[in-house]
Design brief:
This protein has 124 residues and is of the alpha/beta class. The chain is built from four helices and four strands, in the order E-H-E-H-E-H-E-H.
Length: 124
């Protein structure tokens, strides 16, 4: 169910990303969309490299970041589905833990989706 203030829910499936996650986190923190207008849902798929604990610490510092821990599923679809179920935004954006976003990515995609009454927006 969407929350009127959350425009975009970013869902990130995470499994043993090591430092690959750092660029994504940095890019999420640099978004031009107001932090209160998007949420980030990390779904830790049973990581064994300390990533779950790192994400918990990150979420404690950033109230719009959440972490869900699940036993390892062995495939990315399960954690993505868990994240989608937890999403409260008008739109859901799925990224991988080794992706990064341009500073205006969420704002631009949301604006285009609203302007065009789109069900799907694909960034490039």
């Amino acid at each position: 169910m969407s929350s009127p203030s959350v425009k975009v829910s970013v869902v990130v499936a995470v499994y043993n990303p090591g430092t690959d996650l750092d660029a994504l986190v940095t890019s999420l923190l640099a978004q031009t969309m107001a932090a209160a207008e998007f949420e980030v849902i990390f779904v830790d798929d049973g990581s064994t490299d300390g990533s779950g604990e790192r994400l918990d610490a990150l979420a404690s510092d950033h109230p719009t970041f959440r972490v869900t821990h699940i036993p390892n599923s062995g495939w990315p679809g399960r954690p993505r589905n868990v994240g989608i179920e937890a999403a409260s935004g008008t739109y859901v954006f799925i990224v991988d833990h080794d992706d990064w976003l341009g500073d205006e990515a969420l704002e631009r995609m949301y604006t285009r989706a609203e302007r065009n009454q789109a069900d799907v927006v694909i960034g490039k």
